[in-house]
Design a protein that fits this description.
By secondary structure, the chain is α/β, with parallel strands linked by helices. It has helices at residues 51-72, 94-111, 120-128, 174-184, 191-204, 228-240, 247-274, 289-301, 318-330, and strands at residues 2-7, 12-21, 29-39, 84-90, 115-119, 130-131, 134-135, 142-147, 152-159, 162-168, 278-282, 305-308. Fe cation binds at residues 120, 124, 316.
C-alpha cells in the first residue's frame, strides 16, 4: 500500500511517500519512496512561530514539496499511484493544520483517493519505533515520552492505538522552556540546539556551576511536569547579575542538567511502576543528544531500552504521518474529506 503523508502542524512543511505492507508487528515493513521537508527559517528573526506567517509559507511550499517527493518516487504528478493520503489534523497551530488539510482535500478529489486523519503525536511515536524499515522489537505495555515545543507527556501504550496519559506538563512544555531560556541568554531561535551547544562546551571544559537550579516536581507523587518555574529561576538570575565571560555556557549547562534530571527521574519511576521494558521518546526535543544518552544509560541499568528515531526525524516530518496513516488505512479508518477539520488541542486518548 502506498501512503502519502502531509505534515503542517507548525513551521515545517513535510511530505513523504511510503510503500508498506503487513500488520503492526514483526511482519510489517516499509520503504521510503520520497521524502522532503521545507523549514521556515523566516521565524528565527521573531524568536518564535507566527501562525499567520507560517500558514502563508505552507501554502507556498506544499506544491513544490509534493513535486519533489513525486519526482523522487518516479510517480507522475498528474495521477500518481497512491492508495491513500494521510494528513495531520491535530494537535498544532490551527491555521497551519488547515493548510495541510485543505491541500489533502484537493488532492483527494483530484486523484480520487481516500484521506486518513492522523494525530501528530502518534506520528512521533510511530517513527520512533522503526528500525531499518521495520518495527523495532519491543513488548507492550511500553511508555512514550513525548517532548517538544508544545508537549511534555508520559503515555502508557497498552498496544498500538491504545493510550493512557499518566503525566503531562502543567505549564510550559520542555521545548518551550528551552526557547524561553535561550531568549533570556540572547541566543537565536530555535533555542534548544543553542542551549545544548553551550552546555556541551561547559561540560567539555569542566566549567564550575554558577548556581543550582530547581528540579520542579521531580519528586512529586504523580507524573506531571512543570518547567515555568525553572525558566523563572534563570530569568531572576539574569536580571540580578551582569553576565560575565562563559556565564551563558554555565547557565545553559545547569538548565539542561535540571531538565534532564526531571525527565529521567520521572520516566524511571513510571518504568518501575508499570513494569515496562521499553520507552519510546519522540518529539523535537528527542534530538537532544545529552537527554538521549542520560535516559538510555538510566534505562539500561533497570533492564529497559530506549527507542528513539534518528535526530533528523525528531522534528516534524511527513514520513511519521505516512507511517501512522498506513496503520489506520489498514483498518479503513478513512474520513469524509469534506468534513475533516483541524483540532489544535487534539488528544491521543
Amino acid at each position: 500500500m502506498k501512503i502519502l503523508g502531509i505534515e503542517t502542524s507548525a513551521d515545517d512543511t513535510g511530505i513523504a511517500l511510503i510503500e508498506a505492507e503487513g500488520k503492526f508487528g514483526p511482519d510489517f515493513s516499509y520503504k521510503v519512496l520520497g521524502n522532503a521537508i521545507s523549514s521556515q527559517a523566516i521565524h528565527s528573526q521573531y524568536g518564535g512561530i507566527f501562525p499567520a506567517l507560517a500558514k502563508r509559507e505552507h501554502a507556498k511550499n506544499l506544491p513544490a514539496v509534493l513535486d519533489q517527493v513525486l519526482g523522487d518516487a518516479n510517480e507522475p504528478v498528474p495521477h500518481p499511484n497512491i492508495d491513500a493520503i494521510a494528513v495531520t489534523h491535530g494537535p498544532g497551530l490551527e491555521p497551519c493544520l488547515w493548510t495541510g488539510i485543505t491541500f489533502a482535500q484537493e488532492l483527494s478529489k483530484k486523484w480520487n483517493v481516500p484521506v486518513v486523519p492522523v494525530n501528530h503525536m502518534e506520528g512521533h511515536i510511530l517513527i520512533s519505533v522503526m528500525e531499518k524499515g521495520k518495527l523495532a522489537q519491543f513488548d507492550f505495555p511500553a511508555l512514550a515520552l513525548l517532548v517538544s515545543g508544545g508537549h511534555t507527556e508520559l503515555i502508557l501504550m497498552k498496544s498500538f492505538g491504545q493510550y493512557e496519559y499518566i503525566g503531562r506538563t502543567r505549564d510550559d512544555a520542555v521545548g518551550e522552556a528551552f526557547d524561553k531560556v535561550a531568549r533570556l541568554l540572547e541566543l537565536p531561535y530555535p533555542g534548544g540546539p543553542e542551549i545544548s551547544r553551550l552546555a556541551a562546551y561547559a561540560r567539555s571544559e569542566k566549567l564550575p556551576a554558577l548556581l543550582k537550579l530547581p528540579r520542579p516536581m521531580m519528586t512529586s507523587d504523580d507524573y506531571d511536569f512543570s518547567f515555568s518555574g525553572l525558566k523563572t529561576a534563570v530569568e531572576r538570575y539574569v536580571q540580578a547579575h551582569e553576565l560575565q565571560s562563559l556565564d551563558r555556557e554555565k547557565l545553559a549547562c545547569e538548565f539542561e542538567d535540571a531538565v534532564t534530571d526531571v525527565l529521567v527521574y520521572k520516566t524511571l519511576r513510571a518504568v518501575e511502576e508499570y513494569g515496562v521494558n521499553a520507552v519510546v521518546m519522540g518529539g523535537g526535543v528527542s534530538a537532544n543528544k545529552y537527554i538521549r544518552v542520560r535516559l538510555a544509560e538510566a534505562l539500561a541499568k533497570v533492564g529497559a531500552r530506549l527507542l528513539v528515531c534518528p535526530p533528523e526525524f525528531s522534528t516534524d516530518n511527513g514520513l511519521m504521518i505516512a507511517l501512522a496513516g498506513y496503520f489506520h488505512a489498514l483498518k479503513k479508518e478513512f474520513a469524509d474529506p469534506e468534513n475533516l477539520a483541524a483540532n489544535g488541542n487534539l488528544k491521543l486518548c
